[in-house]
Amino acid sequence: MSSDLATEAFFKLHRDLPREGPGAPEDVAWAASLLELPSRARIADVACGPGGDIAALLAEAENAHVTALDAKAHFVQAARDAWRADDRVTTLKADMKVIANPYDLIWCAGAVYFMGVGPALNAWRKSLLPGGAIAFSEACWFTDTPSERPKSMWDREYPSMTNEAGITQQIEGAGYVVLGQRRLPDAAWEAYFGPLDQRIAALRADADSALNTVLDEAEEEAACWRAHRDEYGYLLSVVRPA
Known about the structure:
Rossmann fold; seven-stranded mixed sheet; 7 strands
C-alpha cells in the first residue's frame, strides 16, 4: 500500500472522532488538582488532536486561555471549527518540538513518545512560566513479562516503551520532580475506543483494501488492550523543574 493511500485511509477512519487517544476530563481535573493554577492560567494543549481535552483544560481556571497545537492540519481544523467562536482558545498548526510562548501548564496526552520523555521535557522547560508544570501521559508496561500479543504490537509501534519506573527515571534525568502519577483508568480508554468502534463499523461495508487494512489495525489495537489491559496502559505524570 502506498503511503498516500495509507494516510488517506487513516484520516478517513479518524475523521470526526472526539479524541485521538485514551483520556477523559477526570484526567485533566486530577492533574490540575496537584497544582495551584492562577485564575488567568496560560495552558498549552500539545498535540491536541481534534481538541478533546480543551473543554476540561478551560474548566481548571476561571479565566484560562488554551493554546491548542498540532502538526496535522486535519486535527487543527477540527479543533478550530469546534472552538472558533471562543476567544479563550487559540488553535495553531505547529511542531510540538517548538513551543514559542510561556505557559503555566503544558498538557500533552499520549504524544510525548514522538520526541521521547527526556527530550520533550528538556525542550519545553524554557516555555514554562515560574511555577509552571507539565502533565503528560505515556504508554508503559505494567508487567515485566508481557504476553506475546501486546509485546508484538508495541515492539512494532513503540519499541523503546518502558515501565513506570523507567518513565520516572527519565523524568528525574531531565531535571524534573514528580508531583504525582497515576494510571489512566479504563474509562479513559473506552472514551477513545468506543467512538472508534462505531466508526469502524460504519466504514466496513464500503471499505476498499487500503481502508480495510487500517480498520483491521485499529480493531486489533482495541481488542488487544481489552484482552491485556492489566499488562500495559498509560501513566499520567505531573512534573515540574527541580
